[in-house]
What we know:
The complex is a heterodimer of chains A (439) and B (166). Chain A contains 18 helices and ten strands. Chain A has 439 residues and is an alpha+beta fold. Chain A has a domain at 87-237 and 248-323: Cytochrome-c3 Hydrogenase, chain B. In chain A, 49% of the residues are buried. Chain B is built from three helices and nine strands. The longest helix of chain B has 12 residues, at 104-115. Chain B has one domain (3-134): 2-Layer Sandwich (Beta Polymerase, domain 2), CATH 3.30.460.80. Chain A binds chain B through residues 71-72, 75, 77, 79-81, 83-84, 115-116, 242-245, 256, 258, 263-264, 370-373, 375, 382, 384, 386, 388, 396-397, 399, 401, 405-406, 408-409, 438-439, and chain B through 20-23, 49-53, 55, 57-58, 69, 71, 73, 75, 78-80, 82, 101-103, 105-107, 127-131, 138-139, 141, 145.
Amino acid sequence: MRGGHDMxxxxxxxxxxxxAAEADLRDDLTGEVxxxxxxxxxxxxxxxxxxVLRLLLExxxxxxxxxxxxxxxxxxxxxxxxxxxxxxxxxxxxTRADYxxxxxxxxxxxxxxxxxxxxxxxxxxxxxxxxVCELNRIASHLVYLATGGMELGAVSVMLxxxxxxxxxxxxxxxxxxxRMNHAYIRIGGVIMDLPDDGPRMIRxxxxxxxxxxxxxxxxxxxxxxxxxxxxxxxxxxxAQCLALGVTGPPLRSAGVxxxxxxxxxxxxxxxxxFEVPVRTDADAYARYVIRLQEMRQSLRIVEQALERLDHVxxxxxxxxxxxxxxxxxxxxxxxxxxxEAYLAHIMEQSMEALIHHFKMVTxxxxxxxxxxxxxxxxxxxxxxxxxxxxxxxxxxxxxxRDPSFVNxxxxxxxxxxxxxxxxIAAIASLDPVMGGVDR
Amino acid sequence: xxxxxxxxxxRRFFPDTFSARDEATVIVERERLLDALAxxxxxxxxxxxxxxxxxxxxxxxxxxxxxxxxxxRSMPLRHRIRVKVGLREDDxxxxxxxxxxxxxxxxxxxxFDLFGVVFDGHPDLTRILMPEDWEGHPLRRDEELxxxxxxxRGAFIPPVDTRGMA
Lengths: 439, 166
């Protein structure tokens, strides 16, 4: 520990430095305090940067003069890793990219690989995929609302958002055994059918959630503070969005009806009845309104999907032993695990089943050479998977076009010239997830 | 427009165009890349005004070694096309498309960072995901997975996969 003498000396030194700094700010001729800009780092560890986003801000008082987003703090090499694993293992990697929308990552990747294989998932699997994706969209938008609200001081909304998300995550846990990183959607379908009480849990949620969304609206939509912090903030016109590649709610808040579920439908989205909410104000408030409306639309889709599940039966995985995952699985207390009856079958009864299981697990599916780009509409915009195969048991390249990565480029355009406090609201309105940005 | 119609349309100007798996792909020489992208963007029948994605693949030992792929999307007409350009190993340069599509900025930085492809004319071609002082380009096929030494506060931490289980 430093002695008292040293502490005094340090204090004197600091005091001296302070005086010098103040003198430096005064103009030699006029004696007025000079206007100088200050450069500060916001992040990478900052509660309102949604993880580890670092912003280099040049400030003139409270006004942002220049802004440079710096990313890469959460780079985990997911794309590189997929090149060293089997095609099936790829699912468990990509689901961890944008961790708030795991099902969309799984779906985009699996659809791309399925197109390379020239197969299509059975109808029941497609309905389940739509069902879990729309539940996921609701969960993701609830996190936007919760964290976005917290950043602007609406702490109750933070608690409500996470409370309702818990309902959705409980459903995910019942279906997949996990709250996130599910690896539930697999090449050729989904890994297992819904549990018996799955539909009941979802119906219970459908009873509760619309009223809760009404509550958020009552709390926020006409709240003077919420309006003050969001209206006209983070403005980004349609032309700017398109030039910068911004998609999702920010693009739709600028009057562009762009939604891949409608534009280039996949998984049978063209057969569902839903609307794409669009606003024209192009600000943070419009994005808030759009996300609330999207949650309602997602509920509509979930309802339709549930109805279909009542009469669409059949398998949830393609009937092709060279593609389908061999194991029968069951949901255990810590995720999806091997079913004991199946284990007994391969270990004690059938040598052929064991060999097949071993081949599929260690080597897996072989994908013919080719390349495919598959886009899906994630809660944050266009999530694209560019998958290249050279005809091997492992991908040659998996490129994740993550919407958060691209949307983040718009931050300087949104915040330069505005207040620091507005920068927080603007970034929250993009709803970036750094796991997807850095991958 | 269907992908074979798009391909037929683009083939009039860019002969090396084909359609596979419902996707049209144009392969161009590096010198014609900007022309091709500008034409696809401005052609009234295609209107590919949105650059969805941009990335590269690496094929060591082949010529060209790198294939940079541009994914274009038409929002009004709801279709896509891919433009690919091959780059030699000893000359991995390609003109930056940021003047045509500002969104290419970070995509090109990422490809530069991870593959070492140089985008001539890019406003700020620096690493984006890896640390500034990183050596090498991790997504190249000849770079191994893992096995990176780490220095933390003066202590030297060997790669996990070379440490053994003790």
